[in-house]
Known about the structure:
Layout lengths: L1 H20 L14 H5 L11 E5 L4 H17 L4 E6 L5 H13 L4 E5 L2 E3 H8 L5 E4 L3 E4 L10 H18 L15 E4 H6 L5 E3 L2
Parallel strand pairs: 1-2, 2-3, 3-5, 4-6, 5-8
Antiparallel strand pairs: 6-7
Amino acid sequence: MMRIFTNLLPLVAVGVFLQGCYTPAPAHSPEKTVSPSDARVDFSDPVLNRRQIFLFGRIDQRVAEMTIQKLLYLDGKSHDPIDLYIQSPGDTAQESLLIEHAFRILKSPVNTWTFTGCNSGGALLLASGTGKRRAFRGAVIILHGLTWRGSPPPEYTQPFQDDYMQLWRKRARLPDSWIPFAFDVHHIVSAEQALEYGIVDEVIDR
């Protein structure tokens, strides 16, 4: 027994030495930095590869990144039309404008659709489609001026406001009394009115 214990001592000593030299990895080691869209866009998605994109919910940075990556991916595959289905209350002004600007660099026409309606930046994207723009009958579309979190200085917000209103002048035929949009006024538009005002090109029966 003593012999076995004596033979094990060198091994134990080596183990203690190695343990003292070993620095364990932190419990929460930093991972490779990736954008949210890198982590979540599934380019093998059969719906995406049918050239269909769903933009549902609020338009924040993550949604804008994912939408633009999908648009660029499909445009790189071919220049056939892309169908973008929009069901959104809008949200962040910059991100809505960013997606609209992405439309301009694509060679593929972007058909825009809304089922029951969209608001604010979502409505702008509907009107900004570079292919056919469609709303289902019964959809409600709400237009209003840009709003901001906090109180950013006017020199920061004014270029976005000007770009936003210029896009509406270009993409639709709104009443002169609406422009520029007041912050506290919401213009509620039916699908039929959207067709009349040039926000969409066609109203689809359910």
